[in-house]
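hey can u run this one w/ pyridoxal-5'-phosphate bound, need the structure tokens asap thx
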Amino acid sequence: MKFNTKTIHGGQHPDKAYGAVMPPIYQTSTYAQSTPGGHKGYEYSRSHNPTRSALENALASIENGVYGLAFGSGLAAIDAVLKLLKPGDQVISTADLYGGTYRLFTKIFEGFGIKFCFVPMDNMDAIENYINDRTKLLWVETPTNPMMNIIDIKGVASIATKHNLLLAVDNTFATPYLQRPLDLGAQIVMHSVTKYIGGHSDLVMGALIVKDKQLADQLYFIQNASGAICGPQDSFLALRGIKTLHVRMQRHCENGKKVAHFLKSHPKVDDVYWPGFVDHPNHLIAKNQMDDYGGMISFSTKEDSLEGAIKVVEKFKIFTLAESLGGVESLAGHPASMTHASIPKKEREKIGVKDSLIRLSVGIEDIEDLLEDLQQALA
Ligand SMILES: *Cc1c(COP(=O)(O)O)cnc(C)c1O
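ok here u go:
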């Protein structure tokens, strides 16, 4: 089955009871048993729920995985991966990381004795330099948020294989429409389903997808034992979102390309970060690894100040100033004061997140309206 067909049919079967084409929302915590242990595969909804199972199967299918696990948020999914580790273990992570992931690593798991190194992963030697016998996990986010750096997943996977490490990839920005990390050698794919997969800014959810049965069993044990699952209503919405992922992504990419070029040629705009530009420092990796370049773009204005950036984001009429990304509507964010405020200013600036940086999640509206909105806000 090819990708577009998978988004609609992958892992899906008509409901056993009445043949419903969409899985019913099984809004139940428990399931009747005929005799102790005599159930139909479902006994308690933290452990399993048929609506969540349908979603988990769809997630596994679109990422070319075998097992999917859905969680109450993206961070809950990352939390489950980190619980594979023990005190003293070391994680090597992408340097410019989603702020909430950085906070979870440094403010929660460092307190439990896990060590983190944040490394610019477009340099493979830098990764190898940090590996020691306590290293267990490589954590990759690509494209990175908000600087749109691209990390060579295949390259990192070969390092992981050489040193027998686990490789997890946060695939939130790209989605499996653009890149499939399991095919490139990663063992775990993670998603904030909240973003492109859900696609309609109406839910908060996370997911993990793996191929290996033993790893799936370990993560399922953590999902059930720690309990950060998502509910059946949200599972239904996410499944509905997946069915249009390919058509939405196609338009996000088309509009993203036009917005990126518009910004690059605008006299008031300074730097534009988008992996589709041939002069983007990791363009060749992006070209090899991704099927298109997505709808996430960051830029800074020539008036290089906090006030200047805030003036622009306040003037938008169609782009909504909001946290999050990946919905059908265009959003604008100011990383330094919003998504990345949990990273200290000095650390933030080291990775390029200046006070003047603005991040756009380009939606699927008419491109003329989006360009007009950018034009008037920058004027
Ligand atoms: C939003 C986001 C997360 C966290 O997901 P939540 O669903 O908000 O918990 C993790 N990684 C990336 C890249 C994100 O954009």
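The first helix runs from residue 3 to 9. anyway lmk if its weird
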